[in-house]
Amino acid sequence: MMKKSIAYAAYESNKPLSPFQLERREVGAKDVQIEILYCGVCHSDIHQARNEWGNSIYPMVPGHEIVGRVTEVGNAVKGFKVGDLAGVGCMVDSCGHCPDCQENLEQFCNTCVFTYNSADKAGKNTYGGYSDSIVVDERFVLHISEKLNLAAVAPLLCAGITTYSPLRHWNIKKGDRVGIVGLGGLGHMGVKLAHAMGAYVVLFTTSPDKAADAKRLGADEVVISKNADEMAGMSGSLDFILNTVAAPHNLDQFMALLKRDGTMCLVGVPDSPHLSPSIANLIFKRRKLAGSLIGGIKETQEMLDFCAEHNITSDIELIPIQKINEAYDRMLKSDVKYRFVIDMNSLRG
Ligand code: NAP
Ligand code: ZN
């Protein structure tokens, strides 16, 4: 039976989100049905709800930081049973046989189906986590530890994996000097995770009032990126920089802070391009500019297990769904400490 689900949707790029009803597909043999309890609010939700990437499909139900309880499983499901905690991140399907899928990097599969603003294999629009339930193929459902605060786990499904994956890919280890740019949802997870991996963490922020929090979260040093003298003091000193900024900005000021052979990895996806970086900054120290996209399902589970082991969750502001438009406006002013999470009981009324 198709199941009616209540949700909040963006109907147009320039209108506030408002209530919406949709139907989730019947639970198939390999499907898990989840009652959504909490959903994190990612800056990507704003970019897409407002069509800043130019690919939006309306009506759109955003949300890809989903946690909840399993309420039904198909008869071929092996890993989940009714009552289990479960999580869903940015992806809900992929081809399963291309080289990327075979290497557990489903996010790079050419037919990867994203949790919302995407079309599934049957050609139907996908709807995300600002809703009371979801039905997902078991291969894309994550196991969640019972020992952590569930609402604060939700942001790990995107902000957590998007920062964990590049830190692992560039092999960040004890003693490495790592810069994190921007203390928002992704950035604050980057600080916590790099710190837990043993790195010396330098946080770059445009918001001086976040300095004390950054230190509490695990930063060893805080640099106000608008202060040229403070920036110059870091010149040539970092092994790796993870840049989470959601707006176009001058990349050169950060490239210059890398050591020889250092890498800056961009994960922020602004609506318009950064100014092209200077060649001199790259060639004289053989520096690299790179990018990274979320992380595969296997690595997402590894990250969730790492966080359970190290007692890492997100610092959150819990909001009712009725406050979602206000939350978007606050995020755009870099005013969130440090991730909004929707309490989905507010939707059930
Ligand atoms: P967020 O919570 O809004 O954080 C972004 C932070 O960037 C802000 O808190 C602010 O930190 C800094 N910032 C904002 N505007 C700035 C500006 N004009 N100049 C310099 N710094 C600025 O956003 P988020 O949810 O962490 O997402 C960040 C970006 O990553 C978004 O573009 C999102 O779409 C993207 N994303 C990418 C992936 C991926 O797979 N690659 C996954 C998820 C999200 P300070 O106040 O500390 O300066
Ligand atoms: Zn996200």
CATH architecture label name of the largest domain = Alpha-Beta Complex
Number of strands: 17
- Give the count of structural domains: 2
Major sheet characteristics = 7 strands, mixed
Basic shape: globular
Structural class: alpha/beta
Pick out the low-confidence regions. Answer: none
Which small-molecule species are bound to the chains here? NADP nicotinamide-adenine-dinucleotide phosphate, zinc ion
Radius of gyration: 20 Å
Q: Enter the CATH topology name of the largest domain.
A: Quinone Oxidoreductase, Chain A, domain 1
Percent of residues in beta strands = 25-35%
CATH domain class of the largest domain: Alpha Beta
CATH superfamily of the largest domain: Medium-chain alcohol dehydrogenases, catalytic domain
Protein name: Aldehyde reductase YahK
InterPro entries: ADH-like_C, ADH-like_N, ADH_Zn_CS, CAD-like, D-isomer_DH_CS1, ER, GroES-like_sf, NAD(P)-bd_dom_sf
Pfam families: ADH_N, ADH_zinc_N
EC number: 1.1.1.2
Summarize the structure.
With 349 residues, the protein is an alpha/beta fold. It is built from twelve helices and 17 strands. Helix 4 (159-169) packs across helix 5 and helix 4 (159-169) crosses helix 10.
Topology:
Layout: E1 3-9, E2 18-24, E3 31-40, H1 43-49, E4 66-73, E5 85-88, E6 91-93, H2 99-102, E7 113-114, E8 133-137, E9 142-143, H3 150-153, H4 159-169, E10 177-181, H5 185-196, E11 200-205, H6 211-217, E12 221-224, H7 228-232, E13 238-243, H8 252-255, E14 258-266, H9 279-283, E15 288-291, H10 297-310, E16 316-320, H11 324-332, E17 339-343, H12 345-348
Parallel strand pairs: 10-11, 10-13, 11-12, 13-14, 14-15, 16-17
Antiparallel strand pairs: 1-2, 3-4, 3-8, 3-17, 4-5, 5-9, 6-7
Helix pairs in contact: 4-5, 4-10
NADP nicotinamide-adenine-dinucleotide phosphate is lined by residues 42-44, 47, 158-159, 162, 182-187, 205-207, 210, 244-247, 249, 267-270, 292-294, 331, 334, 336.
